[in-house]
Design goal:
With 70 residues, the chain is an all-alpha fold. The chain has two helices and no strands. 0% of the residues are buried.
C-alpha cells in the first residue's frame, strides 16, 4: 500500500495551496527555476558519467575440451 495511492485531485489542490501559502507567490518562480537548473546539472553529470565508463565487452568463453579427439 503506497502512501500516495489514494491521492485525488482535491488532495493535490490542497497541497498546492499549502505550498503557495508557505513560500508565497513571488518565490515560487525562483524555486521552480532552481529546481530546473538542478535537474539540468544532474542530467549532464549522468551523461558525463556514462561517457566516462569504459565499454564492457563480454569475454568469450573457451570451447569445452574434446575428449578422445571427438
Amino acid at each position: 500500500m503506497g502512501l500516495l495511492q489514494n491521492l485525488t485531485g482535491w488532495h493535490a489542490i490542497i497541497i498546492l495551496v499549502v505550498i503557495l501559502l508557505l513560500f508565497g507567490a513571488s518565490k515560487l518562480p525562483v524555486l521552480a527555476r532552481s529546481v530546473g537548473q538542478s535537474m539540468k546539472i544532474f542530467q549532464t553529470e549522468i551523461r558525463e558519467a556514462k561517457a566516462d565508463e569504459p565499454a564492457v565487452s563480454p569475454t568469450p568463453t573457451p570451447a569445452p575440451a574434446l575428449i578422445d579427439g571427438r
